[in-house]
Each structure stands twice: as C-alpha cells, then as structure tokens.
Design brief:
single chain, 399 residues, alpha/beta, seven-stranded parallel beta sheet, globular, carbohydrate metabolism
Length: 399
C-alpha cells in the first residue's frame, strides 16, 4: 500500500511521465512493471538502464505494487526522507544541475580492521568525531588509504553505511571511491551510494582493460556517472598505481563536455605543471584535489587549495596551518610548516609500504585503533613502529 502511495506521490512531482517498461517485459514475464519496483526487483536494472537488453526478475520476487488500480484510501503525509528522495528524482528528470561544494582538506579514511582482519565498524563513530573536532568537513571513504580495492562489495557497502550514518551527527560530507572492481560491481556501488545517502563519488579507471586514450576514459567515467546521476562524480588520477597515463587537462575538458555531473578530479601526481593546467581547465563548480601530501604548500601557491591526503588523518591541524599561511601570503611560514610535514611523512616511509606504515602512524598519533592493513598487505614489525614513534617525538609532533 505504502509503495503505491509513494509512487503516486512521485508521479505528482515528475515534470513529465517516464517511459513504460511493460513492453520490454512482455517477452519474459506476465507481470507489468506497475506491479514491481523495477530498480529493486530486477537483478540487472543498472545494466539495463545503461546498455539496454531485457530486464530479469530476481528469484522469489512476486508482484507487490498496484499503481494501475484505483485506491480509495486517503493518502498519508510522506516522511521527510521519502520527500527528499522524490525531490532528488524530480531534480534529475527535470535536468537540474548537480552541485558539489566540498573543498579544502579531505582525509581518505582508513578502514579499521580487527586483528583477525574483520572490519571494526564500532570504532568509526569515534573516528568521525576525532576528525570533526580537528576541523575536517569532508572525508573520502574507500580510497587507496581505505583499501576498498581489497574488500568485497558487501563489505564496501557496509563501510559506506557506517560513514553515512556518522554524517547525521557530524555533518561530514561523505565522498565514496567506487572503482577498483569489475565494472558491474562499480556501477552497483555507485547506484548504492546514491540510494543510501553518500554526498559524492570518486572513481578509479578500469584497472585491467585500461583506458588507452581520453575518449575511452571519458566513456568509462560516464558509465559510473550515469549509475548515480544525482551525485557529483570525480575521477581518481593516480598513474603510479593505476598505470593510466592520460593527459588530464584534455580529459577534464572532454569529461566536462560529455558528463553533466562530472565535478573534478583527485590529482595524485607530483607533476604540478599538469595540475595547474587542470585547474585552468575546470569550471567554477568543479574542483581539483591534490593527492600529494608533500606538495601541499607549493600546490596551494599555484591555486590548488583542496587536497585528499592520508596524513590529514594524522596531522589535520598542521595541514590546515600550511593552507592558512599560504592564504596570508606568509611564504616563509608555509615553507617551514611544509618541511615539518614532509619530515613527519619521511619518518614513516623508510619503514615500508604506504598503508601499513600510515595505519601504524595513525594509532601512534591519534590513539584510534585502525588495526592491520587488509590482506595481502602485512603490518609492519613492532620495531619499525617504535622507530616511527621515536622520530615523531624528536620532531616534537607528538609528546
């Protein structure tokens, strides 16, 4: 009954009637889609919307919607959540512009693990509070730091749910990285994030059949963007890991022309010359996020003032002080603070791979237990952990 009324309410708000799916279904089922919630009841809905073909009912699904029948029951008021969902749907169908407002420092959060490598969801609320109290306004879930490329889709969704839930009390902007998986899973994750309340998406390129040129990369990102048309979508440029080495200014220009909800990139490269070109190519409602922690000050001097960096988890106030110094044109102070941050990073990097050393550093600096890295990576030795701690004390970063 309630499904029927929600559908009727949505129809009242639509700017124009949507296409019927009944014709498509006539060859595979006797049930009209008026009796099904298509996006939930069909196992291949996302693929159908993107590339066409035949819809397939999930096993065990029975008709449960009766929008084609008249109802005499009085329609109750919609909940705020359902009204907002209908409004988002209406905005998309009427062609309203997707807005992306996240700026400044965005830590890519760690995925906390227990010693047995299961996910420690219980620590996430305290983790979110820690970042919020340090002045952080937005986080990236599922990036390289978050190791989501090593997790299955079900666990990735649960981690997203946990962080979206924290936003209700912290106000954090939740961006989710959905790439690093087979395309069907990437599209599923993108659609899921839009449905469950994430604020924006970031996507890696296809990592096996890699895009070879600008057009192929735009085509890939467009598929992700179409799976979540109401969310801002950004591209994750990290050629050292993805091995996708395509000219980013050309890509940004083409993506902007072809993808309505494309809103920028995470630029994890030391080539600040190319980064500056990307900045010039972006529109006012788009953004470039630097992904190189040791170049925060010089990038800010070039005008790149937003950043997604692992060490913003450990040293958020130091990073913000660097940006503030640049804003005040205090180049000497910005340089000194950048040197301090760079030395703090080097205190870690001599001891191993990026995520294992940074997870150890996070526990040393914040006291938040993020646990070991996900398999196949391994935690660093206790001796290495002690050396990191000693170096940070010598730098007077910790007491």
């Amino acid at each position: 009954m309630q499904d029927h009324k929600d559908q009727a309410a949505a129809q009242d708000l639509e700017c124009q009637p949507g296409p019927s799916f009944c014709t498509v279904l006539q060859n595979i089922t006797n049930s009209c889609t008026q009796h099904h919630k298509v996006e939930n009841d069909m196992e291949n809905y996302v693929k159908y919307k993107l590339v066409g073909g035949k819809l397939k009912l999930k096993k065990g699904v029975v008709p449960h919607r009766f929008a084609c029948q008249k109802q005499s029951v009085e329609k109750p008021e919609r909940s705020v959540v359902k009204t907002l969902k209908i409004a988002k749907l209406t905005a998309s169908r009427c062609g309203l512009r997707v807005v992306f407002k996240a700026r400044g420092l965005m830590p890519p959060v760690f995925t906390p693990l227990n010693d047995d490598y299961t996910i420690n969801y219980e620590v996430i609320p305290a983790y979110a509070d820690y970042l919020t109290k340090a002045g952080i306004k937005s986080v990236l879930v599922g990036g390289t730091t978050g190791e989501h490329m090593s997790l299955n889709v079900a666990d990735r969704k649960k981690v997203v749910d946990a962080w979206v839930k924290t936003a209700k009390t912290t106000g954090l902007h939740i961006q989710v990285q959905v790439g690093g998986a087979p395309l069907a899973d990437v599209l599923d994750l993108a659609s899921y994030c839009e449905k469950e309340g994430a604020d924006s998406l970031l996507t890696l390129p296809e990592l096996y059949f890699r895009p070879q040129n600008v057009n192929e990369l735009v085509s890939y990102v467009e598929l992700v963007a179409k799976a979540a048309p109401n969310l801002p979508v950004l591209y994750y440029h990290i050629p050292s890991m993805s091995k996708v080495e395509i000219n980013m200014p050309a890509f940004v220009t083409a993506a902007t022309a072809h993808i309505p909800n494309f809103k920028g990139i995470k630029f994890t490269s030391n080539d600040l010359s190319e980064g500056a070109q990307v900045l010039r190519a972006l529109k006012d409602d788009q953004e470039i996020f630097l992904g190189a922690d040791t170049l925060l000050a010089p990038a800010a001097l070039l005008g790149i003032k937003s950043s997604i960096g692992t060490t913003w988890n450990l040293f958020p106030r130091l990073a913000q002080d660097i940006l503030d110094a640049v804003e005040k044109n205090d180049v000497a102070k910005a340089r000194a603070l950048q040197e301090k941050l760079s030395l703090a990073i080097e205190a870690h990097t001599v001891e191993g791979a990026w995520v294992p050393i940074m997870k150890a550093g996070m526990e040393i600096v914040s006291g938040i237990k993020v646990g070991p890295p996900s398999l196949p990576q391994r935690p660093i030795a206790e001796e290495a952990r002690k050396r990191i701690e000693d170096r940070l004390r010598n730098l007077r970063i910790i007491n």
